[in-house]
Structure formats: structure tokens, C-alpha cells
Amino acid sequence: MRILVLAYGIKKVLSGRFKLLLNWSKGLNAKLVIANSNVSEKELHMLNLPQEYYNITKISDLLDLMRNEDYNYIFVDDRDILLLNRSDISNILKSKKVITYVYPIKGLWALWGLPLRNVMSRKIKWGKLIGRLLGYFILKNYAKIINKYSDIIVAQSYTASGILRYSYGIFPDLVLYNPVDRNIFSPRVKADEKFNSDYVVLYLGSGDGDTDISVLGKLCNVLRQYRLKVYTFGDRQKLKYLKNCDFEYLELIPEQKLSDLYSKSKFTIVPQVDEPIGYVTLESISTGTPIISLYPDEGIVNGYNGLYGSDRLFIILLEKFINEVLTNFNLYNTYYTNAIKNSEKFDMTKLSRTLTTYLMYTDTKFEI
After folding, report:
1. Can you give the pLDDT at residue 318?
2. Residue pLDDT, tens place only, 84-94
3. Closest CA to 282 of 192, 161, 157, 191
4. CA 43 → CA 13, 14, 27, 46, 205, distances in Å?
5. Are strands 199-203 and 268-270 parallel, antiparallel or unpaired?
6. Is 57 helix (H, G, I), strand (E, B) or coil?
7. ∠ CA 39-42-45 to the nearest 5 degrees?
8. Is the pTM of the predicted complex or chain greater than 0.70?
9. DSSP of 178-197
10. How far apart are CA 203 and CA 53, in angstroms?
11. At residue 226, what are phi and psi to the nearest 5 degrees?
């Protein structure tokens, strides 16, 4: 079974989208093709890349590679599927099978960061409604392209699977979460060292309007009250809302350092909306770090390895966690143990084995 993983148009080397495709390539032992990217070789080496990968800048070189490379499956995400709509590429892939990994399509309008949604939804309430409605009709056509060119559709989460089925007429063959490289993201310290840590990690989002800025000021007031230092990363534009925090902004963090940062943090705060499951959550719990989230993330079991709650409840839960869990080592140790245990289902190797087993049993004509 020979698989090509395509990562087209990557803008940020540490983005969740690229990390997802990178981890699938490693887990599937597939060749990674990075095409039309703004990412430099220096930035790429911040990640644990597979031994064999291609970094292509010209579409003509990509076409040549797709014609000449020996593979029978190509793995793309739902943004790459638009590339397959080109006649020259679709002709090449007639003899191949296309595996499409689909994000929660409900959030794609925000993820794409289209100007109308960004400008209108942040200023006026009806703008958000207009943005969602326009996005829905645009993505209905986009869904047709996914159905047309995909042989196997994999949903990123059960939330995504439900939205795809009932809103867009896309019926996933499998639900497989974001794969986490647990060789990198694993516990590096014991629970007692984390319990005595003096800092927390705050994720500011990807920059596509996914962070709820209304809670940042309140959040900072709570963290300052309890004298907790904040290490933060993500969207720099959100730093202006952290004036009341004792924070340090980290940029372009290599994976090994990010794992170390999570491992020694008391907990991680994820104030994002419309994110059924994200890498910050999954990598944090893989290091034994509990999560406080604004959205019911599928990586969090409420009261087990973290807490989630929207708007005002989010701040209440944050204070509850600080007052009850951070003052009781036995309770904190339970969260720590549960986080590690729950992270096993996101293991890159296990998820990749599930996908390859599915391919073997559904398409036996290909040589294994």
C-alpha cells in the first residue's frame, strides 16, 4: 500500500492543518508532498519531519511528481480537494484512490477567514448571521466537489461527521481524530512537579477569528488574582486583550519545546469557539496537562481530564479549577492521570493502523 500525502498551500509551519497532514504521513509511513507553500526549509526543520518528503514550489513540478511517483492512494484534506478539481490533476488521479480528511465544515467559513465574515461579524451581530448563511451556500457547492473526487471520506470528529451528514450531504466512511505524535508529546515531568509549577499556557488561536476576545480580559483578571504567570502563543493580534496578565508571548515554538512547555504547565486554557477538537487540547492532555476550554471539545471529558463551559460559565469553571483542583494534589493527580489515559485514543500509530486496516479490507485489489 503506497500513499502520497499532499499538503498544498501551507501558510504557517506550526498550523494545526500542516501538523495534521504531517502526522498522517508519519503514521501511514507515506511520502509527504509540500506544494505551493510559504514555508522555508529552515521552518520545516522545526518539526519532526519524515525521512522522505518533497517541497515543491511550481505546479508543473507537482504534476510531474503525481504522474511519475509510485502510489495508489493520495491523502488530502478538504482544502486540497479544490486542487483536484483541476482537469490536469483529476486526469492523473483517475487510476488512484483519493482519501479526503474533512474538518468540521461548520467552522470552515471562519477558518477560511473570508473578509466579509471577518469584518462584519466582529462589529455587528447580524453580520455573523449573514456570514454563516453565505458560507453555508458557498460550502454546499464545495461539498459537491468533495463527494465527486473522494473515494474515502474521513471526518475529523463525530461533531464534524454529524454536520457533514445532515447539513451537506457528505457521508464519511470513518471518523478518525487528529493524530498526535506521542513520541514527542508525552509526559516529561511527574504530577507533583506540574502541581508546583508557577505558570499556565494560553492559546490565542490561529488568527481566523476563532478566539472569543470577550473572555480574555476576565480571564486575565482571574490569573492575575491567583498570581499565575501566562505563557501564550498563537494570534499576535489578541495580545492587546492581555494587558492585565503577567504574560510572555512565544513565537514559532519547535515541537520538542512545545511539549516541554505543556508538560510543566499547571493547565492549558483554550478560549476558542467552533473547534470540536484541536491540537492544543490533544497535545496538552498527551503530556498530562488538564484543559480549561470554552467549547465542548471532543478531547475533553468534562470533570475527568479538564473542564469546558461557554461565556460566563467558562470563567466560573476556571476559578473552580484553581480553587478546588490546584489546592488538592490528589485531585490534580487524578486529572493528570486521566489526561494521559484519554490521550491514547489520539495516538498517531493507532489511528493510522485503523485507517490502513480499513483500506486493506475495502480494496483488496491493491498490493499490500
Report:
1. 94
2. 888 888 888 88
3. 157
4. 6, 9, 21, 5, 20
5. parallel
6. coil
7. 95
8. yes
9. PPB-TTTSS--S-HHHHHT-
10. 29
11. -95, 10
